[in-house]
């Protein structure tokens, strides 16, 4: 199977690894050449760590690397059976990308979005063949997280849904079919996990580290809300909350936080930028507050 992944940031790189591991020929496309290069280097590092831990051998590492190539034009993606978009979480930009992409792929190509929260129906409506569009929502980190939400839009054909579920299952993931509603299942349920933690902090009741500690030690979560937001990326996480808030007609339950907005605006995106709620650079003190 020929797969194209558009956007090779946190999610696109992981999705490409999953597809290549499953034996697909994968092409990764990104508008940012430096990011494309970084993605290739990171894949090499990730796979080398798996070899060190004896999870895979050198032959398997080379096999996965050889299944991935890098593209700088849509024309190079024309033979894809499935395209998975993982670019910035912005509806207008995604719609533009889908409508342009359709001119380059064959009529049978499935076009999927990895959006966390946006309307699949709206993305599909930007295409001439909306029945081929579907949501495939991986979780971070894609190679490790078992669950994948598959989201058919109102326009998606049964055949496309069936093929998608079959493919993702063959990639050894567990599929949950979700309705096309803001945040789908997991991201909607997760909103209060982040928002209430931010409110507790903003009310001066506890600092980031204490809230994270409490949720892990007492709540049994693997990561606290602030660690998790730094892991996801504050830009991505803030945008998802804002989308869900707006899409639910400004229901105050989903109200975003200024604390997170300012961090995102300042470029303190979390692990990927070296600073978020916590510092990740060696030369900075760990606590940001
Ligand atoms: P990211 O910021 O790490 O990567 C986005 C990539 O897209 C960048 O490499 C950027 O250069 C590229 N890009 C931006 N506009 C583009 C365009 N027009 N054409 C081609 N490439 C373009 O973002 P991340 O975190 O990988 O998120 C991507 C998508 O996946 C978003 O829709 C997000 O909501 C979703 N998602 C994110 C998760 C997370 O934990 N970060 C989890 C699940 C879904």
Automatic annotation (TrEMBL):
Any one GO molecular-function label of the UniProt entry: NAD+ binding
Biological process according to GO: fatty acid beta-oxidation
KW Oxidoreductase (keyword) present: yes
Identification of the protein by name: 3-hydroxybutyryl-CoA dehydrogenase
Top-level taxonomic group: Bacteria
Sequence ranges assigned to domain 3-hydroxyacyl-CoA dehydrogenase C-terminal in this UniProt record: 183-280
Transmembrane residue ranges: none
Every 3-hydroxyacyl-CoA dehydrogenase NAD binding domain range: 2-180
Alphabetic keyword roster: Oxidoreductase
Species this protein is from: Flavobacterium piscinae
């Amino acid at each position: 199977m020929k797969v194209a992944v558009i956007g090779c940031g946190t999610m696109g790189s992981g999705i490409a690894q999953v597809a290549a591991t499953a034996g697909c020929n994968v092409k990764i496309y990104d508008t940012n050449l430096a990011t494309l290069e970084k993605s290739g280097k990171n894949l090499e590092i990730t796979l080398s760590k798996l070899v060190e831990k004896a999870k895979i051998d050198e032959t398997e590492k080379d096999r996965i690397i050889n299944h991935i190539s890098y593209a700088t034009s849509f024309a190079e993606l024309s033979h894809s059976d499935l395209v998975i978009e993982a670019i910035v979480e912005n509806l207008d930009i995604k719609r533009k990308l889908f409508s342009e992409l359709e001119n380059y792929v064959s009529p049978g190509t499935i076009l999927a979005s990895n959006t966390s929260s946006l309307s699949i129906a709206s993305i599909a409506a930007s295409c001439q063949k909306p029945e081929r569009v579907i949501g495939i929502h991986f979780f971070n980190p894609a190679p490790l997280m078992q669950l994948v939400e598959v989201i058919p839009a109102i326009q998606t054909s049964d055949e496309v849904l069936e093929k998608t579920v079959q493919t993702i299952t063959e990639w050894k993931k567990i599929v949950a079919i979700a309705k096309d509603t803001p945040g789908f299942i997991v991201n909607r349920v997760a909103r209060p996990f982040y928002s209430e933690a931010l409110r507790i902090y903003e009310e001066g009741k506890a600092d980031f580290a204490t809230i994270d500690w409490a949720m892990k030690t007492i709540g049994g979560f693997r990561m606290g809300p602030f660690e998790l937001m730094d892991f996801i990326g504050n830009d991505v996480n803030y945008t998802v909350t804002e989308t869900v808030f707006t899409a639910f007609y400004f229901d105050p339950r989903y109200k975003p936080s200024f604390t997170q907005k300012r961090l995102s605006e300042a470029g303190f995106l979390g692990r990927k930028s070296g600073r978020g709620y916590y510092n990740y650079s060696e030369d900075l003190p760990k606590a940001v507050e």
